[in-house]
Amino acid sequence: MLVSENETLKNNIIKWAEELGKDRTILLPLLQRVQKKYSSISPYAMQIIADLLDIHPVEVYSVVSFYSFLNDEPKGRFVIRLCRTISCEMSGRDRIARQLQNELGIAFGETTPDSRFTLEWTNCMGMCDLGPAMMVNDVVFTEMTPEKAHEIVERCRQTFSAFALQNKQEG
Amino acid sequence: MKAKYMSPLTFSTILPDEGLKKAVSIKRSEILAEISASKIKGRGGAGFPTGTKWNLAAAAKDTTKFIVCNADEGEPGTFKDRIILMDHADLVFEGMTIAARAVGSKEGILYLRGEYTYLLSHLETILQKRRDNKLLGDAILGVEGFQFDIRIHMGSGAYICGEETALIESIEGNRGEPRNRPPYPVDTGLKRHPTVVNNVETFAWCACIIGNGAEWFLKHGTAVSTGLKLFSISGDVERPGVYEFPWGITVSEVLEKCGGRNAKAVQIGGASGYCIPRSQFDRKIAYEDISTGGSIIVFGPDRDMLKVAKNFLEFFVEESCGQCTPCRDGNPVILDGIERLEKGTCSITYLNELRALSETMQVASKCGLGQTSTNAFLSILEHFKDECMGRGRE
């Protein structure tokens, strides 16, 4: 039997909700799982979650729109977030920003046409002693230089997930 | 991620679970008395006496109580909790367990900011080890009826969730919008139950205090600000990193230690703190003088202070939760004012209006964000007025 994408999404959400325990307090962890697996939270997913938790879908949407790591619009496979807060600004944030824009050919807030990269600003990541800092999905990179920015983008281009990135970084 | 530079920490000298072992051997009231006697205040920035907080929660009549550790370290320039969670997480969990014993709680939650997701597996491993070693779970250390466990709740990128009631809202699955206070979380917290919310560092120090005694803690610091404190130092210094100092240290002593002697100003307390000019470097860092959660950002002689103020205001415009009008609508107006100053199109009359607006925001905003977001702007304007005024249109 052919299972549609929406159906697997629905089954996943039901499975996760059961794991977490059907309670309003699971909303954030549940949304985080959907976000991680599907890189966005579609209106359909929000409807399913709302039905499961017996709340209005608008409530789910209001939570999704509140947190900056949750989004309803699809993003690139690699979301690059460059810290723009003061210590990173003072340690050369703008050079890294320019280099990333040059490497990717997009501005901040945009996604590449092949849906691989999204470039965003983020606020203080707690890496102020090691600036400039940025994140690629969950992986943190510190003491960035323009060359390093190029290398990381290249590495992303050659891999399929940020996991590979992490292993390489540690190994 | 190791700190760039790190001074020796007292936490490294503490025997593991010494505090917890002692906590199970004495009465609940004795734990509370010890914490109160140490006069420790919240290490997150607000500086509320921890003993009072625990006592209120212990006195609350409810069978369900929660211990919440605030690891939503989002204040610009703060990263000490990252280091504590990496190197001394056991001490933090121990402190939470002692708090649970003192107030009678069975459930603890560590609220970890989304940016620190890479710490998650490390922390989960430590929690599991503690469960295996009977330091968490049922009958902790073999004591019948002492039951407590900790789970980790991830944030999703919202500065405001560091505010304790917003953090509770976030755990409950809501937007991270602060609640009206009172009632305080010790009375009406998570799921309307009494809840102790403390910073990562506070719990770690509480474990040390129970282990070594309040007397030991009182040896450091000033009469009002007791003990030692971890500081996150960044900006124009030779050795940025995490430092441990006693409360009461002067700004110039701090600069001496981290190699920032020629600084022209220092921002203490992060974006919501104050900018201290060179002329005031003999002031003390303590709750009674310059209070801070530990963020110290140093500005070298060539820094444009208006640009600094602009960076902070951009931060607040972005991070305001939007719930109350003074903060949501006030911050963009102040930011616009800074941009006018930058372009040299701001009259003194208008600047005075911005000052008045800042004061309105300080009194009329619902939570700490709006009440403090203009501190940096006002103090920079006060001390560097000449630098900010009369910029040319090129």
CATH-defined topology of the largest domain in chain B: Rossmann fold
Q: How much helicity do the residues of chain B have?
A: 40-55%
Instruction: Give the topology string of chain B: H per helix, E per strand.
Output: HHHEHHEHEHEHHEEEHEEEEHHHHHH
Overall tally of structural domains of chain B: 3
The CATH class of the largest domain in chain A: Alpha Beta
| Biggest interface and residues each | A-B, 37 and 55 residues
In the predicted model, the low-confidence regions of chain A spanning at least 5 consecutive residues are 167-171
Provide the number of structural domains of chain A.
2
CATH domain fold name of the largest domain in chain A: Glutaredoxin
Per DSSP, the total helix count of chain B is: 16
Principal-axes shape call of chain B:
globular
CATH architecture of the largest domain in chain A: 3-Layer(aba) Sandwich
Helix content of chain A: 40-55%
Biggest sheet layout of chain B: 5 strands, mixed
Q: What is the residue-mean pLDDT of chain B, rounded to a whole number?
A: 95
Q: Give the C-alpha Rg of chain A.
A: 18 Å
- So what's the overall shape of chain A? elongated
Number of helices of chain A: 8
Helix-strand sequence of chain A: HHHHEHHEEEHH
Report the CATH C-level class of the largest domain in chain B. Answer: Alpha Beta
Give the class of chain B from helix and strand content and strand pairing: alpha/beta
Q: Your description of this structure?
A:
The complex is a heterodimer of chains A (about 170) and B (about 400). Chain A has helices at about 5-20, 25-40, 45-55, 55-65, 85-90, 95-105, 145-160, 160-170, and strands at about 80-85, 115-120, 135, 140. Chain A has about 170 residues and is of the alpha+beta class. Chain A has two domains: about 5-65, Arc Repressor Mutant, subunit A (Orthogonal Bundle), CATH 1.10.10; about 80-170, Glutaredoxin (3-Layer(aba) Sandwich), CATH 3.40.30.10. Chain A has a four-stranded mixed beta sheet, covered by helices on one side. The radius of gyration of chain A is 18 Å and the shape is elongated. Chain A starts with a helix and ends with a helix. Chain B is α/β, with parallel strands linked by helices and about 400 residues long. Chain B contains 16 helices and eleven strands. Chain B has helices at about 20-25, 30-40, 50-60, 80-85, 90-105, 120-130, 165-170, 200-210, 215-220, 250-260, 305-320, 325-345, 350-365, 370, 375-385, 385-390; strands spanning about 65-70, 105-110, 150-155, 195-200, 230-235, 240-245, 250, 265-270, 275, 285, 295-300. In chain B, the strands form three sheets. A five-stranded mixed beta sheet of chain B has the order 6-5-11-8-9. Chain B has a four-stranded parallel beta sheet with strand order 3-2-1-4, sandwiched between helices. The chains are: A alpha+beta (about 170), B alpha/beta (about 400). At the A-B interface, helix 2, helix 4 and helix 5 of A face strand 5 and helix 11 of B.
